[in-house]
Amino acid sequence: PAELKMLKFPYLAEPVVKSKRISVIDIKGSEIIQVDFKNGVRLNLKKTDFSASQVLIKLAFGSGRSLEPSDKPGLTALSRAVINESCLGAMKKDELERAMAGKNTFVKFGAGEDSFFLTGRTVSNEVELMFQLMYAHITDPGYREEAYKLTLERFQKRYKALSSSIDGAMVLSGKSFIAGKDSRFGLPAWDVFKKLTIDDIRSWVNKSLKEAPLEISMAGDFNIEETIETASKYIGSMPTRQGFESRSIRKLPEFPFGKTKNITVPTKISKGLIVVAYPTDDMWDIQRTRRLSVLAGIFSDRIRENIRVKLGAAYSPFAFNRSSRAYKGYGTLQVYIHIDPEQVDMVTEHVKKVAADLAVNGISQEELDRAIKPAITGIKDMQKTNSYWLNTVLADSIRHPEQIDWSQTIIKGYSSIKVNEISKMASKYLDNSKCATIIIKPEQGL
Q1: Cα separations (Å) of 141 from 112, 124, 135, 184, 210?
Q2: Percentage of the chain with pLDDT > 70?
Q3: Are 16 and 82 in contact (CB under 8 A)?
Q4: Is the pLDDT of residue 206 over 80?
């Protein structure tokens, strides 16, 4: 084999200027430290001892999928895959892997509903390496034609699999239907997706990467003062960016009140899928969002009892509430049930009967207890993870400082929920005249 060239990382010159801190705030009761640098970068820190030597980091910027161009559906999914395959401007993916051999640090690009981000994982003694890697991704991003071609080949295979599966039909048609055919939900048809170009990716992501304000959040086992100094050198020394502002979404998704969509799939697998969705609301009234989550849990239990026990059907139905971070007023409580295609009508009717009973008669104390107790146990376990503090509390707290308060009230918030509050939620949101239904079945005769 040909001798591989030894590559070295970091390859960029180390910044010689450190940014001054203009404020350092220690939020009492939460053990969270917020640092603002002169160039407008915000650094959020939560030192923990949950997992020895583990450090998680998230650098967020821009508005993510919520501002995906309406004439370029699928650009978010393609951008995420191409950028991660491209790696850096001066280093291909395999070259960086060789240069980082023996290290425990990695970074990847992502795009959520309301932001782009670089997420990373490292260990206590490689924190500076993590910042060097973040710095390289921001300063010298890679947009490679060969990565684009490889990604399209992979997506073509994925589309082939999606087009012949029940769950794939939900991705290709169902998700956008629940959002009023909004192209930011799910994936477009392959003929549309394959027309996206590497230049589309570069022009969309690069502007945010180079101009949007940066927020960095870290949770884990690290030295606070050393981390602040390192951040000031690699991120705080970058040119000043415009200040954080409220996101302006050009168009909001529209729920398809009372509509039904029937989808057939060319598959020999005798399995169907029913999705019944009810319009709810965005997540920013946290008391409402917590109660909607509890309602979804109780709805799941009721459906399992009715369909599994009473009908003798061995299905695994589940309900969940998804309240939007990016879209004002938009949220859905959805029920998913994989079923025998011949029982579609019967099972759909039973789901709506359960919803109607909840809306009219409310819930019992026993049902509430069954939902709340495991929820609180799960929350306590969750609060002992770096992932929770990073992704739920710290990230985007510059725009939504209330997230930090929520972390202090979450146990009390769930413990104080009353039966009549959930019953009122059911009455308000589980309205069968407003729900949207998706029925996915195999094509006849296959």
Answers
A1: 19, 25, 10, 24, 10
A2: 96
A3: no
A4: yes
Compute the distance between CA of residue 272 and CA of residue 344 in angstroms, rounded to an integer.
8
With 0-12 / 13-18 / 19 or more C-beta atoms within 10 angstroms meaning exposed / middle / buried, residue 427 is middle
C-alpha dist (Å) from residue 314 to 49, 64, 170, 254, 318:
43, 39, 22, 34, 13
Q: Which H/E stretch holds residue 43?
A: strand 42-47
* Residue 305 CB partners (closer than 8 Å, separation 6+): none
Asked whether the beta carbons of 76 and 63 are under 8 A apart, the reply is no
The answer to whether 83 and 205 are in contact (CB under 8 A) is: yes
Q: How far is CA 287 from the centre of its chain?
A: 21
Task: Examine residue 10 and say whether the peptide bond preceding it is cis (omega within 30 degrees of 0).
Answer: yes
pLDDT digits (tens, 9 = 90+) for 238-266: 998 877 666 667 689 999 999 999 999 99
Grouping H, G, I as helix, E, B as strand and the rest as coil, residue 221 is coil
pTM for the predicted model, two decimal places:
0.92
Q: Which two three-digit tokens encode residue 25?
A: 């705030």
* For residue 4, pLDDT beyond 70: no
pLDDT at 311 over 80: no
- Give dist(CA 181, CA 183) in Å, integer: 6
Residue 112: C-alpha distances to residues 19, 67, 174, 289 (Å) = 29, 11, 19, 19
Cα–Cα distance for residue pair 204/239, rounded to 1 Å: 20
Instruction: Give the C-alpha separation, 292 to 331, whole Å.
Output: 10
* Cβ(120)–Cβ(56) below 8 Å: yes
Distance between CA 14 and CA 9 in Å, rounded?
A: 11
